[in-house]
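Pasting as-is:
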Amino acid sequence: MIRIFRLALAVAVFALLSSCGQATTNGFGEVANKPHEHSDGDHGHGASAEAAAASTLQPVLATSEVVVGPNRLALGLLEKNVPIKDAAQTKVQVRYYKLNGNQATLVGEEAAHFYGEGLGERGTFIVRPTFDSPGTWGLEVQAERPGKPAVTQRMSLDVKAESTAPTVGRAAPKSATPTVKDVEDLKLITSDTEPDPRLHQLSIEQAVTSGKPSLILFATPGYCQTAVCGPGVDVLSKLADRFGDKINPVHVEVYQLPYDEGKQVPAMGEWGLQTEPWLFLVDKDGKIARRYEGGITYQELEPDVAKLVEQS
């Protein structure tokens, strides 16, 4: 969550800030989460190769949908258009600015946490801001790599008033997705080459009305454009190992099988999803408790799921 604060800012870093906590909007650039074809080949959403190559260190946003309220933003760091190798040792601080005309008002900051287990070079820095109004916001990302001077870069962000995907606090759509009971072969409802039967025991509808917490993962291991769907399914299986019958783990294949020119399953539309993968934590009452777009790790998820189970 954005932490509202008062503190003296170092002149060397914030030379543009005035005594009232404002700066010009110069340097925030194009909107980082502008509409895009969902692909993570460049490790970002709306970040051009030209922009990444133009700087020694370039932050890119790996989250497409940002809304009023709590969010989970994933940031990657590129050097010469390639993810940096020392990301796990890099300290990242993110500052949030409310933009109004040519003024940028600093309203909060937080340290980002790097998660990369199982994701290889697609590991990301995660922050959890809460935005109080729609419109264009500014992000300032300061990265300090081992043995190198700190680098500060800016980008702008489009915050929507409402989300197409279910947001925290809303009821989870009760989609009637197929289960192991509906097919002779699990490969008819998942593109995973070695499907875990535990992830296909319940439909979404059965899971979110069961009175237990549910983990609903929309992912396509066989056709993923981001190469993080397979690892995400593995994380879901690992969480099933950890929490057993205290949770309902549900994997939903993104595409109808046999694969037919990218035709998606009805649940994708019912949940308003325009990208993949997505994971939703649903509480015992069937309401969205957390949501994660893109790559996930057990390291990030285990504490969140544990908290959800404790509250049940």
